[in-house]
Write a structure and sequence with these properties.
This protein is mostly helical and 484 residues long. It is built from 19 helices and no strands.
């Protein structure tokens, strides 16, 4: 990608980011992950059939143009993927957006980014575990959802503790299962369409029913981008990826493209088969959540409905596995920089995993997931608050690109004859200004569209983080340790 920085500036940024063991060094994380492993973690966290749960909502909001919604959402999220690809080369460290904001904006902004991302990385797995528990309870009603939820947390935590490669191998098998189920749906849908035709015009998922509405599509995009939350977890494994930052950047971009294609294909076919019009669906909001399953049931058969449900139940637990692994790396990185208790910065000698950080993440997720599983409205309540943390962190990521490539990176290398902040040349207006500004605009639009509950929880979490930051700065100022 033009204008990206090379290996040299990674070292400069690492210095700015602070200390910590080098990856692969004794006591540090091990570089064992392949490109495939990184892609598996990203796609697991997203889930190949992520649109299933919100298909009806998007179809109703967009007036039937659900596929173009995902095409636009993919382009919008490409801005975020680009900013991750830029910054992972600048600061190839565990902690993802925490490390990037620390380098691009300063230590305080880095802490805020990590604090907000923590809300995302701890609660999105909790939602996934709870969804898995509810789905498994529907299949085996004799076992309460909270038991299934707790079991899913325990099993995936043990896999994460066994090491990043072990978890990646198991995750690959689960991801392969999910993609096979998606392929079964695609083939079945094509067979039905060839034999019986579509319920509406072949172009309807792209043009809408009764005319294209740009406003309706953009309104739906603000919801659809939430399907992509999780691909950024790939950046958390920067210190464990063989091949370094370039491999991580390539995996981030590839994951987004693959997910976008999968989402567009499945929503296009489902929209053609859906027995209800978008207008009717909009008038029946209670049926929007199950619209995909209703479509599969009526067009193909109950057997595929059940197969998709089982796939989603198992896949959700392993999406949480990827999220928990990313959360562990974030807690590890912040603890290593003395922003969280230092005990979580220890790496297990046998497995190479940040064991204590993983256990800390697992404990918080377990309490949140099981607590929600014991409430009738637990899934709705938990789902409504998980997005603002990730979106705020994305906003700080885009600001970090601007801060590093236009201000901090250039200032730090002034007088050296060339700007290491831009890989030996001037920053790129496209990649280091236009793209992050567009990404920031998307983030702001989505936060504005978020529920009042999500905004409230995100605001309270942000204020709490600022209080913690102020206390830390006060303590470090008294000890004479504050750096600019």
């Amino acid at each position: 990608m033009p204008g990206t920085s090379g290996r040299g500036e990674g070292g400069a940024a690492d210095g700015a980011a602070g200390g910590g063991a080098d990856a692969g060094a004794p006591g540090g994380l091990r570089r064992t992950l392949t490109f495939r492993d990184l892609l598996v973690y990203g796609l697991l966290f997203i889930a190949p059939m992520a649109p299933v749960g919100i298909f009806g909502t998007l179809q109703a909001r967009s007036h039937g143009a659900v596929t173009v919604v995902y095409l636009v959402a993919t382009v919008a999220m490409a801005c975020t993927a680009s900013s991750y690809a830029q910054m992972v080369r600048v600061a190839p460290r565990a902690g993802s957006v925490y490390a990037y904001a620390r380098v691009g904006l300063g230590e305080g902004a880095g802490f805020v980014a990590g604090w907000m991302a923590m809300l995302d990385y701890l609660l999105i797995p909790a939602v996934a575990y709870l969804f898995s528990g509810i789905a498994l309870h529907a299949l085996v009603p004799a076992v309460h959802p909270w038991v299934w939820t707790a079991l899913a947390v325990v099993v995936t935590t043990l896999l994460n503790l066994a090491g990043v490669r072990t978890a990646a191998r198991v995750g690959f098998a689960v991801l392969a299962m999910e993609i096979v189920v998606l392929a079964v749906f695609v083939v079945s849908a094509v067979v039905v369409l060839v034999a019986h035709g579509a319920q509406r015009g072949w172009a309807a998922p792209l043009t809408g029913e009764g005319g294209f509405s740009a406003g309706a599509v953009l309104s739906a995009v603000s919801v659809a981008v939430l399907s992509y939350l999780g691909f950024d977890a790939i950046a958390s494994f920067a210190e464990e990826a063989g091949g370094g930052a370039d491999r991580v950047a390539r995996a981030l971009l590839t994951c987004l493209v693959v997910a976008g294609v999968l989402f567009a294909v499945q929503t296009y076919l489902a929209a053609l088969l859906m027995p209800m019009s978008a207008a009717d669906l909009a008038a029946r909001p209670a049926e929007q959540g199950t619209a995909f399953y209703t479509t599969v049931d009526s067009a193909v058969g109950r057997w595929l409905h059940d197969l998709v449900a089982v796939s989603k139940a198992v896949g959700a637990a392993f999406a949480a596995l990827a999220g928990q692994a990313a959360a562990g790396r974030l807690l590890f990185a912040m603890a290593r920089d003395r922003r969280l208790p230092g005990a979580m910065s220890k790496v297990d000698a046998a497995s190479g995993a940040p064991r204590r950080a993983l256990l800390g993440a697992a404990l918080v997720t377990l309490v949140a997931a099981v607590g929600a599983a014991r409430r009738d409205d637990g899934l709705d309540q938990l789902s409504s608050i998980v997005n603002v943390g990730a979106l705020t962190a994305f906003g700080l990521l885009h600001a970090s690109v601007l801060g590093w490539f236009w201000i901090r990176g250039r200032r730090g290398n002034r007088g050296m004859g060339r700007s290491r902040a831009a890989g030996g040349g001037a920053p790129s207006v496209l990649w280091h200004a236009v793209v992050p500004l567009l990404g920031l605009a998307v983030v702001i639009a989505v936060v504005v569209e978020a529920s009042a509950t999500a905004q409230l929880v995100g605001g309270v979490w942000l204020v709490t983080g600022l209080v913690v930051l102020a206390v830390q700065y006060g303590g470090r100022a008294r000890a004479g340790e504050v750096r600019g």
